[in-house]
From TrEMBL:
Name of the protein in question: Gluconokinase
Pathway: Carbohydrate acid metabolism; D-gluconate degradation
GO-annotated cellular components: cytoplasm
Keywords of the record: ATP-binding, Kinase, Nucleotide-binding, Transferase
Organism: Cricetulus griseus
GO MF term set: ATP binding; gluconokinase activity
Amino acid sequence: MEAPAVLLVMGLGWKFYDADDYHSEENRMKMGKGIPLTDQDRIPWLCSLHNILLRDVASGQHVVLACSALKKMYRDILIRGRSDVPLEVDESAKERLAGEQLLVVYLCGPFEIISRRLLQRKGHFMPPELLQSQFSILEPPSGPENFIQVSVDQSPLEMADAIMEAL
């Protein structure tokens, strides 16, 4: 778990999910070979994450989800799901999730800082060489999305404080 997420979860007492833990083995192997994921690769993963969020909302649980939802379409799937994918919980949970005050925390920073951090990460299936492909498709959140922007050039404590203040 990333340092800001640890501080955030500890400060709020909420459940934490790292979206990377839910990638299919095929996606992990593809990234491990240095091949960027396509929308078609990501959509089933995002739908699974949506179902996790639905399940937790249905049970009254608050959640922090660390996820590289690089495009608006990906964030929309996380929040609203897809009509062509069956729900794993009742329809009322989906309505509550769409009506909840969901906050996207956009951790932004220059390529160099993020690249340096990726190079320090050990044992992850995504090689740092794929970072450029992620920057290439990045669609930063904008209105009317409910989001805050937090710079990664702050300390983890400063980032967690900024997020908690926004909540």
